[in-house]
Amino acid sequence: MRDFFLKTGVVGQHGGPAPSAYVPSPDDTLFSALVGAARRFGRGRPGQWLDMKPGSYSYGDVIKMALALGRLSAKVTAPGEHVGVLMPNMVATIGLLIGLSAFRRVPCMLNYTAGVDGMRAACGAARVRVVITSRLFLAKAGLTEQAAALRDVELLYLEDLRGRFGLLDKLWLIGWALHRPLSAVPEGDAAAPAVVLFTSGSEGKPKGVVLSHRALLANVAQVLSVLRFDPDDTVLNVLPVFHSFALTAGTFIPMLSGARLVLYTSPLHFKAIPDLVREHRATVLFATSTFLNHYARNAEPEDFRSLRLVVAGAEKLAPPVRQLWRDKFGIDILEGYGATEAAPVIAVNRIEDNRAGSVGRLLPGVEARILPVPGIVEGGELHVRGPNLMSGYYRHDAPGVLEPPRSEAGEGWHNTGDVVSLDGDGFLAIQGRLKRFAKVAGEMVSLEVVEAIARAASGEAMHAATCVSDAGRGELIVLFTTDSDLTRDQLAAAAKGLGYPEIAVPRRIRVVADLPMLGTGKIDYLKLKLMGTDA
Q: What is the mean pLDDT of the segment spanning 394-398?
């Protein structure tokens, strides 16, 4: 296909004015944006932020926390230093992140579900020498031994650091900083790194993704220009904040729109989360398709009566999950699409313009090129750029060296690695990751299609496809399923009914009790590939 280029307008792509009021200043940082939100929505508004400590915080409390934790961290780290953060979904974690960046340190959010090797690789790529964590958190999460196994880093515990906040620090905080917070921290730089997040490592070693204050705040503004959030909303964030979806959509969007934020420690508590939605009368929920499926199966219709907006991201929304939510709760899930490198949201559907099977239109300000891929007839590989794009990567083979974004589309572009198609109305449909295509007997077969066939044959079970080398056919497709009765004949019949060729029917079926998952809610395809090789 031809090289396709698209650029959206600043606001008008979705029609009408921006429904939410946040417009970042070119000089805004996370800290100055927090202070600005406190001015707009009320510094002392009670119950603005909640977590499971239990704790209830106002904007003023979060500013105080950011100032105190930022000053404490500055005692044990150097300006510009990359500092690991190994903490759960708590208001203190967000205060620490914003405080570090306010004092010109770079918080690096470590994925504690990645295991020792994953965390070591992340620390190595970003040249992290100090990791701030909590003894209580490590003990409760069963991570004490894993944290101790992190070589070449020094663990600093919040419980110990608090003792270093002396009388002069308290006088500084109470007598000056709380009254003039922007004057109490170093001058901000919107182009400087605000945070380093790490790719999931589902297809190899994690990369450090460097996101500036400007990129993060631009992405918040982009989303708020097409989706309405306001102080009457309550956002329940159950996704871990080391993941970009949870950090931007689940944390910074409510922070900057005035919505109430409830942070919960794990998305895996499938029975507890419906209770939390009901208890807090949450109006907004962000989750992956996999998690939404579990929540729906453990909830009663009245549990989700307060929800007005449910957004799925990070993986493709399975049609049976969409239908389950529609039938059981009367809720149409909005599917969106993004990448950590884009801070992360690239496209999203809207309530009034929600097209099933698509991830919506590009956000305002996002440019896209769809480049042809040999062997793929419909669609092409998506490359993007925009104000929300990362500053660059840190890779494990060049620690601490920033690699600016660049792709076949040119300097400043990012290759998402996803094969997409675009309809006449500008709606994007994701066909799958290019790395998730199998070359079978010379033909390119999307593993997303294989999974769609499996869902059509067995809608109640969970399915995931991978491929392994095969001497006779190039690659062989392996389907992992929780349905012990699923047969290849059933898959062939489902493929025929959907109009897919026989070559997309997996040659090998493996039954598992559960599919391996990453802490972000995505299926762990790297582990599946290893399992397929061992088959």
A: 90
Predicted local distance difference test score (pLDDT) of residue 20: 52
Residue closest to 143 by CA, chosen among 90, 88, 187 = 88
Question: Using CA atoms, how far apart are residues 177 and 389, in angstroms rounded to an integer?
Answer: 32
- Which residues share a beta bridge with 359? none
Beta strands in 225-366 (DSSP E): 234-237, 260-263, 284-287, 309-312, 334-338, 345-348, 361-362
pLDDT at 127: 95
Placement of tokens 């599919």 in the chain: 515
Domains of the chain and CATH, by start: 441-534 (3.30.300.30)
Q: Which of 323-327, 445-449, 494-498 has the lowest mean pLDDT?
A: 445-449
Half-sphere exposure (Cβ direction) of 217: Cα atoms closer than 13 Å:
27
Rounded Cα distance, 257 and 230, in Å? 5
Determine the length of the chain: 535
pLDDT at 444 over 80: no
In angstroms, the CA 150 to CA 112 distance is 11
Dihedral of CA atoms 446, 450, 453, 457 in degrees, nearest 10, equals -170
What values do phi and psi take at 159, rounded to 5? -60, -35
User: pLDDT of 74-92, one tens digit each?
Assistant: 999 999 999 999 999 999 9
Name the percent of the chain lying above pLDDT 70.
89
User: Residue 56: in which H helix or E strand, if any?
Assistant: strand 55-57
Closest to 529 in 3D by CA, of 501, 510, 503, 505? 510
Predicted model pTM: 0.83
By mean pLDDT, which of 95-104, 125-134, 202-211 is the weakest? 202-211
Residue 274: exposure state from Cβ atoms within 10 A (0-12, 13-18, ≥19): buried
Beta strands in 199-349 (DSSP E): 208-212, 234-237, 260-263, 284-287, 309-312, 334-338, 345-348
Structure-token pair, residue 447:
């593993």
Biggest CA–CA distance in the chain, Å, is 76
pLDDT at 437: 64
- The letter for the amino acid at 234 is T
159 falls in which pLDDT band (50, 70, 90)?
very high
How buried is 431 (Cβ within 10 angstroms: 0-12 exposed, 13-18 middle, 19+ buried)?
buried
Helix (H) or strand (E) holding 446: strand 443-446
DSSP 441: T
Q: Read off the tokens for 315.
A: 């993986």
Report yes or no: 278 and 327 within 8 Å, Cβ to Cβ: no
Angle, to 10 degrees, between the axis of helix 91-102 and the axis of helix 59-76? 60
The owner of tokens 């097209």 is 355
For residue 193, give the H/E element and its range.
strand 193-198
Bridge partners (DSSP) listed for residue 410: 407
